[in-house]
Amino acid sequence: MKTPISSLYQDKLIDLAGQAVKLERLELWDTTATAVSKACGSSVTVDLLLSGEVISAVGQNVNACALGSASSVIASSKLVGKSYKEIYEIRQELLNMLQNNGPVPRGEWSELGLFESAKDLKNRHQSILLVFDAVLSALGK
To answer: Does the pLDDT of residue 71 top 80, yes or no?
Structure first.
């Protein structure tokens, strides 16, 4: 019988988390921010290069658990070309899925559905959201 925790840590999620070591910080950036999970101490630092109000390049330093690492890897390829509003909206969709039994995000963000089984593991939500919190903080400066 699968428990919520065993359902969460799927091979795909673990594979994604392992890719976080390949993420690198930018040498030159317009804004940067770090988000830290109070629950586990995981942290994600993002560096953003901007073209107006849109992200044109992303760098990351991820010192996080498997959830924070996997979420950072998923976001890393999707953040370029996005604005504060778009990142805020996807964070809200992800939060809605986790806290309110909302639908899995669609389109290019559908891979975030990997975290659907974390709905009942509220102490894991902050780690999943770290990369989005860091990006919003950087863009809000």
So the answer is: yes
